[in-house]
Amino acid sequence: MQKYRLLRERVQAELPNVVLDEAPIAADFELARVHEADYIERVLTGALDAREQREIGFPWSLEMVERSRRSVGATIAACHAACQGGFAVNLAGGTHHSYGSHGAGFCVFNDAAVAARALQAEARERGERTPPIAIVDLDVHQGNGTAAIFQNDPSVFTLSLHGTSNYPFSKEISDLDVALPDGCGDDAYIEALSGALSTMFERFEPAVLIYLAGADPHVDDRLGRLALSVEGLARRDSLVFSAAAGRDLPVAITMAGGYGRDIDVTVDIHLQTIQLAAVAFGARRDSSAPDTLRSADFI
């Protein structure tokens, strides 16, 4: 998508302290922690049938396979970097409509789910306890695939704020769902998010937070149906980052959705998220330490 290229260019031009890493390709064994083996095989070999391709939303190609694997690899890399430095960003990602058995809604593999499983598996391999992970999904569409994947897993908490009448029209059950009406504006959204975060932290103590920072709740998003301003989205991001930083939680950020009528506004919103994260987590660092941001790039 064009917005990823534009976002990368803006990050390079306006955030000189960024360390921009190439997105690695997720390995088959990493994908297999979440996705069924036959589905992975069909994606990799081009054996998806016409119905599966329609459900995903675009045709199979070698480029689609590489993009999808790198998107997952970038979120895994962002999680690793966040655990070392407080936060990190995948300049794409947020493919939350993908289920273990199939893709949907422009999502082939579920990057947040695979990354969460990677962190947990790697911890167990080191002889450590399985880290509890929270996935906070603030894309305007419910993270139905993520919710289904972790529905019976108490080690991962799924929180979704989304439009009640938006895609997917048949919702899954997250650990905490907050459905918002069409036209929901800044104040109502922030009140709902504040309550949801409080509830999540009362019920769950994560070691890592994966944040899907969709730009699509914006008032001018073509697919959003909500009515947040750019300033309201800044309040949203700041609320998440403040809650995480105050609990010393590493945060891996993905950009998720954003389909604005003006693509530059969508890119502004995504860039704003990264800038606010740098402010929130930079305040935790020793003032003598370099102010750097690790970002996994993917186009």
Features:
eight-stranded parallel beta sheet, 10 helices, His_deacetylse_dom, Arginase, Chain A, 8 strands, alpha/beta, single chain, 44% helix, hydrolase
What does this structure look like?
The protein is α/β, with parallel strands linked by helices and 299 residues long. The chain has helices at 2-14, 28-31, 37-45, 50-56, 62-85, 111-125, 144-149, 186-203, 230-246, 263-282; strands at residues 18-22, 87-90, 133-137, 156-163, 176-180, 208-212, 251-254, 293-297. The protein has a single domain, classed as Histone deacetylase domain (Arginase, Chain A, 3-Layer(aba) Sandwich), CATH 3.40.800. It has ten helices and eight strands. It has an eight-stranded parallel sheet with strand order 1-8-2-7-6-3-4-5, with helices on both faces. Helix 5 packs across helix 6 (111-125), helix 8 runs parallel beside helix 9 (230-246) and helix 9 (230-246) packs parallel to helix 10. The longest helix has 24 residues, at 62-85. The termini are close together.
Please give the structural blueprint.
Elements: H1 2-14, E1 18-22, H2 28-31, H3 37-45, H4 50-56, H5 62-85, E2 87-90, H6 111-125, E3 133-137, H7 144-149, E4 156-163, E5 176-180, H8 186-203, E6 208-212, H9 230-246, E7 251-254, H10 263-282, E8 293-297
Parallel strand pairs: 1-8, 2-7, 2-8, 3-4, 3-6, 4-5, 6-7
